[in-house]
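User: Can you help me understand a structure? I only have the sequence.
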Amino acid sequence: MKIFMAWVLICGLSLTTSGYSQTTFTEKDRELLIEIKTKVEANEKRLTELREDTNRQIQTLREDINQRFDEMFNFFQLMIGALVAILVAVIGFAYWDRRTIIHKAKAETLEDLNHKGPIRVILNVLKERSKTDTELERILKEYHLL
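Assistant: Let's start by predicting it. Here is the structure, written out as tokens:
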């Protein structure tokens, strides 16, 4: 059995080494490897340049986007400020208008009451009565009604 294993081992080794021919590295092979190496280095350099260019473009786009967001933010601030100013103006006008109308209505009401209302009639009656009643005359004078 040992002889058989040795014979298989020798045959196997001879078969595996006989399939390969030992060729030497020629000058042409060396030139091809140098050419391939040069092309690989050029491609790596080109890829580095493209990566840097892409990064610059991305940075430029980011700056543009940030600038546009800043512009939109400023525009929204302007619009909100304008709306607040309009709101304050409307509320101020409504307050002024109501105050003016109430004051005018109050003055007209008091004028009507003084000239035409029952208070004026009562005051006239009291004035007539004060001509004969000295105590009433004194009271009306005290309150500046005569």
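Now, to help you interpret it: The chain has a mean pLDDT of 85. The chain has four helices and no strands. Let me know which part you'd like to focus on.
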